[in-house]
């Protein structure tokens, strides 16, 4: 058995026991695939992890940068109270349309708002609304702008908020200081921003599983 097959088998075992899906989640993946969206959504185990983080935070307000088909959105929104709010920013109108339908089918349209457009244009508009601080920010969009997204997450959060940056391993290429790949450059900039910022305490973990060799960074906002 290859290493990658073993990783997937272990993922399947954990998911079947600890984070089984349901009709709404299965339909979100099915309809995303049918619409031609890229198969890059978080796994069920990762979705449950995000949900648990939101619950540990006692989150009432969540910001997601990068909606795709709304699969991760559904996992996180289910952790919110009835008067909670999740704002998800999506570049593609097509993706946002699929996500909006998936979110509505999951019964979460009252607490989830999907905003369409480049996130670096949507974020200043969101800040101008002076929203309540976000308790959890999940960054899973274009990697070249990861550092900018972390800066905005810090601006829109509070002491004690959590910032999660997905896909930071880049298949191990994150270690290449000479890389000119915008995804690697942007990810390294985000890691180095977290490392050096006086208001952030963070770490990063490698993962293996259904998404291969990957990982995420987690940062807590300090007072």
Describe the structure.
By secondary structure, the protein is α/β, with parallel strands linked by helices. It has one domain (3-221): Vaccinia Virus protein VP39 (Rossmann fold). It has helices at residues 3-18, 23-34, 44-57, 71-77, 93-105, 119-128, 146-155, 182-196; strands spanning 61-65, 85-90, 112-116, 134-139, 157-166, 200-209, 212-221. The longest helix is centred in the N-terminal third of the chain and has 16 residues, at 3-18. The chain is globular, with a radius of gyration of 17 Å. The mean pLDDT is 96. This is O-methyltransferase. Pfam families: Methyltransf_3 (PF01596).
Please name the defining characteristics of this protein:
223 residues; alpha/beta; 7-stranded mixed β-sheet; 8 helices; 43% helix; S-adenosyl-L-methionine; O-methyltransferase
